Amino acid sequence: MIKLGVVYVLVGLMFAAFALLSATDAANPKRFGNAAFWGLVALSFLAGDRLGDLGNGVLVLGLALIAGFGLLGRGQPQTTSPEARRALAQRFGEKLFVPALTLPVVLVFGILVLKPLQVAGQPLLDPKQATLISLALAALIAVGVALILLRQPLISPLQEGRRLMDTVGWAALLPQALAALGVVFALAGVGKVIGDLVTHWLPMDTRAAAVAVYCLGMAGFTMIMGNAFAAFPVLTVGVGLPILIRRFGGDPAAVAALGMLSGFCGTLMTPLAANFNLVPPALLELTDRYAVIKAQVPTALLLLIANMVLMYVLAFH
Amino acid sequence: MLTLLGVAVVILGFAARFNPLLVVVAAAMVTGLAAHLPPLTVLAALGKGFNDNRLVTVALLVYPIVGVAERAGLQERARTLIARFRGASPGPLLVGYLAFRQLTAAIGLISIAGQAQTVRPLVAPMAEAAAEMRAGELPDETRQAIRAQAAATDNVGVFFGEDIFIAIGSILLMVGILATSGITLDPLQLSVWAIPTAVAAFVIHGARLMLFDRSLRRLRAGAAE
Question: Is residue B121 part of a domain?
Answer without folding.
Answer: yes
